[in-house]
Amino acid sequence: MDKLMTAEEAAGQLQDGMTVGFGGWGPRRKPMAVVRAILRSNVKNLTVVAYGGPEVGMLCAAGKVKKLVYGFATMDAIPLEPWYRKARQNGEIEIMEVDEGAFQWGLRAAGMRLPFLPTRCGLGTDLMNKHPELKTIRSPYADGEELLAMPALNLDAAFVHVNVADRLGNTLITGTDPYFDHLFARAAQRCFVSAERVEDRLALTAEEAGDNTFERYLVAGVVQAPLGAHPTSCAPDYGWDMEHLKRYVASAKEEGGWQEYMESFVVPGEAAYQDANGGSGAMGRLPLPVF
Amino acid sequence: MTDKVDFTLAELMIVAASEAWRGDGEVVASGIGTIPRLGAGLAKLTHTPELLMTDSEARLVEEPIPLGPRGDYQPKYSGCLNFERMFECVAGGQRHAMIGPTQIDGFGQTNLSCIGDYQKPKVAMLGVRGLPGNSINHINSFLVPFHTSKALVAGEVDMVSGVGYNPARFSEHMRRDLMEIRHIVTDLCVLDFEGENHAVRVRSLHPGVSFEDVQANTGFELQKAPDMAETLAPSAEQLAIIQRLDPHNLRAKALKDNPPGVRSQPVGQR
User: What's the rounded Cα separation, in Å, for the pair A74 and A84?
Assistant: First the structure.
């Protein structure tokens, strides 16, 4: 059993119109090497499901997003995601906006093969008016409480980026927060994992094994992608690249800015990408953000 | 004997923010942004040591971590509070967050999603983030760095992201008893919702600000709290703690032009 594949092969699994999840959180541990491969591909009309960071903006800029399912799109240190904003303000994308806690509830429902999970997160807000697909349900018990039935966020495919993987699909997330990558993996028909380091077979200490957050049967493909989260962070390996993110933000203000970004950073491939960002040594030394 | 100390408006607001958490006990204090975070730290180090706090990432600390580059300072972790567990805290109601929404209305409803038409907004912000869940599940306070009727709006906010005390938004079968909106700390005053039927009251006015100034820059009607007074000035001890928590003086960048704590210019119509 060997699940190793290239980023191009992983991106090539997508078909037009699919619903696709991306792991990570805002500007943190996003599967950007695979996102760049998707940007190079011809796939379109995607429904993107994410705790949105620059991958959402880039996919919007490239015209690949039909619909966005999300609770936010932000790069934290740069609060407003420029290409997401453009797409929203031009009315170019459909959306289903939900509370960020309800969002993981929807992934959880999908992973547990349930149609929905009840929550209070969203009741009384405009989310309910704006998205008639969000419905409520009454508790069948004596309390009779009315709750939001958060629909399962079933994914055709999910992409997550981890610190370590092996060819079998075992994964380790060694950063401080695993985010919800395990739920993306569970919610998806097929999950593709990119990793900083890929080994043939993991041989771990008991302590190291605790950094495994989902089972390999959930993993359909493994991509070796060192610095594959750049320009987002990948704790504890490297921090986000503020200089690159600023350049990306500036691209939204320039005529032909996206085309130029594509030609500078995406079209030439990952080796050229690393050269354009100061080389793998400098990228690997980007400091983790301190709050 | 009273020590007369100089302080900035940001420092006054940090002390006012800390008051929001007074007496909350063992709940997670989430102060998002410079002033709320320093307010939460000050609360924990002075009047409410039971508060739980994080390193603004995924771990719990009993000693609030100074903002920015840490030099020799080593955080002392006491536990884990990653996003997944934070959502458990939210659902269980054991949290009091203070954030800065783009809009707040007289019901305490908040907006962080967009301004204008929802399908094609004039301005798209971050998205609703955790406001729907926070607002219905636990205590929330808000920070408004520049108090205007664009931030504290008439009627309802453009996109209700966080719920407030607006009965029309709930059915009779929805629970509304799990939430509380505590304080709104602005650069002019502190507001609360302790009037009749949660009417908004001015709880205290910052030095040099009148009730009329506040009302003129607020989109909804305000009441005066019976004990409305001047917002308490920071003590020398509080300022020393704030300095220790913010050694790089990030608070000087929290408000435009870092105004002094005692206003010298009239507020006027903003």
Answer: 9
Residue B133 exposed, middle or buried by CB count within 10 Å (0-12, 13-18, 19+): buried
Q: Residue B224, exposed/middle/buried by CB under 10 A (0-12, 13-18, 19+)? A: middle
State the CB neighbour count (10 A cutoff) for residue A82: 22
What was the ipTM of the complex prediction?
Answer: 0.96
B136 touching A (Cβ < 8 Å): yes
Separation of alpha carbons B137 and B181, rounded Å: 11
The chain A residue lying nearest B161, using CA atoms, is A125
- Cβ pair B87:A104 closer than 8 A: yes
Reduced to 3 states (helix: H, G, I; strand: E, B; else coil), residue B16 is helix
When CB atoms are compared, the residue of A91, A98, A125 closest to B120 is: A91
Interface membership of B115 toward A (CB under 8 Å): no
Paired with B162 in beta bridges are B110
Residue A233, CA distances (Å) to A71, A131, A237, A274, B38 in order: 20, 33, 8, 15, 25
Place of tokens 């739920």: A183
Whole-angstrom Cα distance, residue B96 to residue B134? 9
Residue count of chain A, please give it.
291
Is the separation of the CB atoms in B141 and B183 below 8 Å?
A: yes
**Planar angle of CA B24, B30, B33, nearest 5 degrees:** 130
Give, for B43, the enclosing helix (H) or strand (E): helix B34-45
The residue written with tokens 């010298």 in the block is B264
CA distance A178 to chain B (A): 8
The C-alpha of B209 sits at a distance from chain A's nearest C-alpha, in angstroms, of: 31
Angle at A83 between CA A81 and CA A86, to 5 degrees: 105
d(CA B98, CA B105): 16
Say yes or no: B33 contacts chain A, CB-CB below 8 A: no
Give SS3 for B196. Answer: helix
CB atoms within 10 A of CB A276: 12
> Strand pairing of A219-224 and A116-119?
unpaired
Q: What is the pLDDT of residues B96-130, one digit of tens each?
A: 999 999 999 999 999 999 999 999 999 999 999 99
Encode pLDDT of B213-237 as tens digits.
999 999 999 999 999 999 999 999 9
**Least Cα separation, residue B38 to chain A (angstroms):** 12
**Of the partner residues B55, B56, B160, the one whose CB lies closest to the CB of residue A126:** B160
* pTM for the predicted model, two decimal places: 0.97
| Alpha-carbon span B167 to B109, nearest angstrom | 11
* pLDDT at residue B3 in the model: 52
Q: For residue B14, which of B43, B35, B45, B41 has the smallest C-alpha distance?
A: B35
